[in-house]
Structure formats: structure tokens, C-alpha cells
Amino acid sequence: MTEHVVLRRAVLVSGAALLGAYLAAAALTQAPLNPVKLRYYDEINSVTEPYLSQNWMLFAPDPLSDDRGIVARAKCGDGRVTEFYDVTRPYVARVQHDRFFPSRMSRLVSGAITQMATPDPVLARLRNKEVEKKKRPVPLLSDEKASRNKSEIFLARYSLSQLPKVCDGSAPSAVQVRTYVHELPSWSQRKDSSAKGTTSFEDLKWRNAEAVG
Fold this sequence. Notes:
It is a single chain. This protein is α+β, with helices and mostly antiparallel strands and 213 residues long. It has helices spanning 2-29, 35-39, 41-48, 89-97, 105-116, 121-132, 142-162, 209-212; strands at residues 66-75, 85-86, 174-183, 198-203, 207-208. It folds into two domains: 1-48, no CATH class; 66-116 and 153-208, no CATH class. It contains eight helices and five strands. Keywords: Signal.
């Protein structure tokens, strides 16, 4: 009985310590810029943002105005390249057919695409001003490039997990993701049944399956 009590207390203390450390790291990310934050930025970031960056876009300040998703194709071991497969739509269909307990998987894709196209707001305003003044805009910073690279790797890994057995049962050797953003018609066109909006595409570079898996 004594050993059981000691073990239980040890688990509770360890859990409280881990929770406290995480809350401290989260609080430090919201603190003003200071020497401690600069010194341990990489370590804190790896704990609080292990997959995707978290920012105020989480609260959706703007109404939904576009539809985002990805298609993907694979390269097989024999060099054959498959057609593109829609790896986003199946989860969207599940959401539409399950209103009580919908899957959130499709949000992972849209969130990663948004992260790729959402720079630092301060830098974005600065770049817009420089473009207006016909000056050379500030290039992407290293952390912006790293954030985009993480998003691309995530989308490639997600696509590999969702592709059907396209290589005759063998694992693909590489995968390529194509992102699409369908801009919905404007509010003024809401009653125009012929309004289709516009769609833009971007082909990401091929990723080695073992490197992203």
C-alpha cells in the first residue's frame, strides 16, 4: 500500500512539473522580447509549436472566402509517376455527413496551406509599403523559410498516408503535392448562379518518401 501511494504521488508530482514547465514556456512566448526569450527561442518553439505555428489567425478574424485543399501524386520504385489524387475531399465528405462528431482532419490541410501563405504581419505590411514605393522588398527570413518548409513536409507526409495503393502494393519512393485555393465569388455575386470564382494552383517540389515519413 505504501509503495502504491509513493508511486501515485511521484506520478502526480511529475505531471504537475511537466504541466508547469509547459505553461511557463507558453507564457514566455507571449512575453515581450527579452534576453531569456531570445536565448531559448528554439527550445521553447519546439515545445509549443511542434507541428504548426500558432498565431491570432486561429480566431478567424475574416469570414471564410476561399476553399483550400491539396491533390497529390506519387513516384513508384520503377520510375512510374501516378496521376493526381484528391486527398482532401474524402475528409470533407465525412464532415458533411457527420454533423454531430465531424472529423477535423481536413483542417490540418487548410491550416498548413494558410501557414505557407501567411507571413509575419509586421513584415507583410513593410513589404507592401516597399512594393508601393517600387523598392526591393525584404526577402523571406530564415524562420519564415523554415515555417514554410515544415508545412510542405507535413503536407507531403499527410498525402503519403492518404494515397491509395497506387504502386501496385509497394510503397511510393516520392510524393508531390499540388495546393489549390478556390476564391469564392464576392458577396455582391451571391445571387448569380453563373459566378464561379477563381482557382490558383501551386506545385510543391518532389519529396522523398523516406525523408518525410
